Q: What sequence folds into this?
């Protein structure tokens, strides 16, 4: 692939995607038009007429990747099949009934329960959003919690939690990016220890997680569009706005035992807990063992597949006919079609950003003549912009960390200053990923809580911006105390 010299035109696809998504409230055409714009931008870069063929240039390379194959495997088949099986058996709803009776007494406790579940499922991003959203939605729906509120809590306890409770894949990934970028980061062990020692300086992560808890408890009041959504749900029971178009079909999640749900199969806690235990066991235990033995294991894909098989097995053992089990699985897969298409287009737009070197151009604009006092805030803003434009925090890290760490060391070799700058990059990228309408975590948070994607983006953005502003102020204050 020819290396391009990135220009401001590299931003065109991301700007088109974000602008159209907000203007039209329809993500599918926004992503598609952005990919077409990517072909135009590359043609301007290279002068090759063939680059206008966006299908060959971007779609086929992106959709033929392992990343998209995992989307099909995990989101379309495993997660779709699992939710379909839970719908068929009533397992998730039964779990919600039990939890609702014992722990949840109203909207505040329902949101607090969502916060706790998000922290428990703190593997970061996709895993957290799916598990938390699936688990808490029936409980929250029964207590008139708007889907905008719920999707915000689920989204804000996904990646942010993974960066402040980093018993997951994040430390190993980030350590690999920063090793060798400063003298105190000479080895992988040095880089890993630096990650954990820098956790107090990940100000956005802490403010996002704690702010979400305060929001859930009603201490941090809702305002603007979020307040409108909350009042609508509490007063009328309408969990979505009138113009909302959720990506998953609306299902009856009433916890009223007098409903007319098919009772031919008697649901049990085992229908929900055994698949969840299988998923978490295979996802977390091998990772922890690998971390302790310095032999990394990542069985996330296997964990989702095993979870679906466990759900099927439990249903069969407890008396559900094989035909109904298969029907539940297939029905769940069908319900995920739109979401899988959106994620596929998001992956393709990521390929567009990669080929046009969008992140590289953005970094180059901010890398010169930044004062020491302003560097953490500038790094946070840069990462917020890159991650929001590209929809990926990890991709942002890959571009920014190798530049930011040597630059910070050149300005001030104090280890604490490096930790402050490190935390600014870590938190800034998470903000952009959390709030971007083209991010997989944003899409999945809306999908599995039943929210309209753009309603979710618009209502959570002011709250997340507040946490980001506090994070930048805190990092600037930390530098002032240091110098």
A:
């Amino acid at each position: 692939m020819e290396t391009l010299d990135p220009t401001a035109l590299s931003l065109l696809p991301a700007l088109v995607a974000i602008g159209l998504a907000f203007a039209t409230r329809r993500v599918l055409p926004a992503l598609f038009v952005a990919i077409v714009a990517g072909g135009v931008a590359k043609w301007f870069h290279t002068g090759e007429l063939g680059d206008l063929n966006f299908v060959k240039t971007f779609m086929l390379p992106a959709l033929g990747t392992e990343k998209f194959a995992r989307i099909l495997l995990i989101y379309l088949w495993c997660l779709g099949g699992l939710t379909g099986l839970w719908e068929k058996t009533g397992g998730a709803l039964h779990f919600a009934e039990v939890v609702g009776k014992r722990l949840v007494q109203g909207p505040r406790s329902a949101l607090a329960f969502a916060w706790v579940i998000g922290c428990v499922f703190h593997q970061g991003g996709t895993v957290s959003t799916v598990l938390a959203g699936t688990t808490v939605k029936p409980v929250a729906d029964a207590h008139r919690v708007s889907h905008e509120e719920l999707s915000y809590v689920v989204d804000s306890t996904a990646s942010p939690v993974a960066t402040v409770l980093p018993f997951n894949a994040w430390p190993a990934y980030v350590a690999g990016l920063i090793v060798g970028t400063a003298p105190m980061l000479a080895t992988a062990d040095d880089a890993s220890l630096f990650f954990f020692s820098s956790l107090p300086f990940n100000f956005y992560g802490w403010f996002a997680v704690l702010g979400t808890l305060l929001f859930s408890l009603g201490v941090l009041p809702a305002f603007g569009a979020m307040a409108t959504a909350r009042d609508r749900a509490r007063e009328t029971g309408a969990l979505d706005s009138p113009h909302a178009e959720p990506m998953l079909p609306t299902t009856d999640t009433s916890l009223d035992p007098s409903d007319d749900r098919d009772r031919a199969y008697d649901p049990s806690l085992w229908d929900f807990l055994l698949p969840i235990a299988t998923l978490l066991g295979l996802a977390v235990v091998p990772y922890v063992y690998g971390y302790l033995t310095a032999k990394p294991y990542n069985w996330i894909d296997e964990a989702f597949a095993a979870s679906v098989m466990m759900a099927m097995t439990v249903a069969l053992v407890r008396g559900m006919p094989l035909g109904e089990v298969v029907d539940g699985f297939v029905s769940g897969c069908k319900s995920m079609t739109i979401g899988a298409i959106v994620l596929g287009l998001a992956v393709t737009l990521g390929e567009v950003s990669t080929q046009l070197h969008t992140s590289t151009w953005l970094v180059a604009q901010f890398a010169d003549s930044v004062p020491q006092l302003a560097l953490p805030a500038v790094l946070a803003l840069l990462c917020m912009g890159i991650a929001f434009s590209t929809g990926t925090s990890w991709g942002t890290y890959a571009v920014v960390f190798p530049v930011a760490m040597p630059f910070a060391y050149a300005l001030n070799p104090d280890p604490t200053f490096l930790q402050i700058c490190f935390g600014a990059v870590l938190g800034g990228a998470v903000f952009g990923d959390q709030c971007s309408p083209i991010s997989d975590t944003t899409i999945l948070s809306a999908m599995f809580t039943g929210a309209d994607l753009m309603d979710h983006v618009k209502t959570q953005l002011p709250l997340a911006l507040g946490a980001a502003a506090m994070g930048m102020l805190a990092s600037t204050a930390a530098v002032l105390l240091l110098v």
